[in-house]
Amino acid sequence: MRLFATLACTALLSLSSLTVTAQMAMDKPGAPPASPDATAQVSLGGKAISIKYSAPSLRGRHVGTADIVPYGEVWRTGANPATTIVTATDLTIGTLTLPAGTYTLFTLPTPTTWQLIISKATGEWGIPYPEGQDFGRVPMMGKSVAKPQEVMSISFENTKGKTTELHVKWDTIDQFVTVTTK
To answer: Are 42 and 21 within one domain?
Structure first.
């Protein structure tokens, strides 16, 4: 019995040591952050639009599971501080008209469709979702990508004149919506 207790204590101490070592490695000064800051920028009609977000990694997980971007729940569309869009011009995002200004982006993912949520609330951490502060919601179009993308990205693609596409890519998912200015 004493041998069993000694082995159990040794196993617990070893596990605790590994956990502390892993946390220290992530917290080391100079080590890259787990979800680095990123920016997507575009100019439409000579006016700047930028999105600031933190880019999480899959780390063996898959979008749509309970532990990362659960389907049917509002997601902060990134990590850490809330994802922010700043536009110097009025925009049409999908069917939604958005005045120039600063807003927070969320998404509502499902297995078949995603919605882009534009919130009037700004300056928050990203969670909890600020119920009742929606400026509006628009459906996104989606397509699958062949090779899983480890790090989430937000980008502006297929920009022509006063039109672009806002893309959210992660895992095997590419969700996007058309953005235009006058």
So the answer is: no
pTM: 0.81
Query: Do residues 85 and 170 both lie within one domain?
Result: yes
Indicate the helix (H) or strand (E) that contains 6: helix 2-27
Q: Are 40 and 8 within one domain?
A: no
Domain interval for residue 64: 34-180
pLDDT tens, residue order, the chain (182 aa): 555 444 444 444 444 433 333 333 344 566 567 899 999 999 999 999 999 999 999 988 888 887 788 899 999 999 999 999 999 999 999 999 999 999 999 999 998 899 999 999 999 888 899 999 999 999 999 998 889 999 999 999 999 999 999 999 999 999 999 999 98
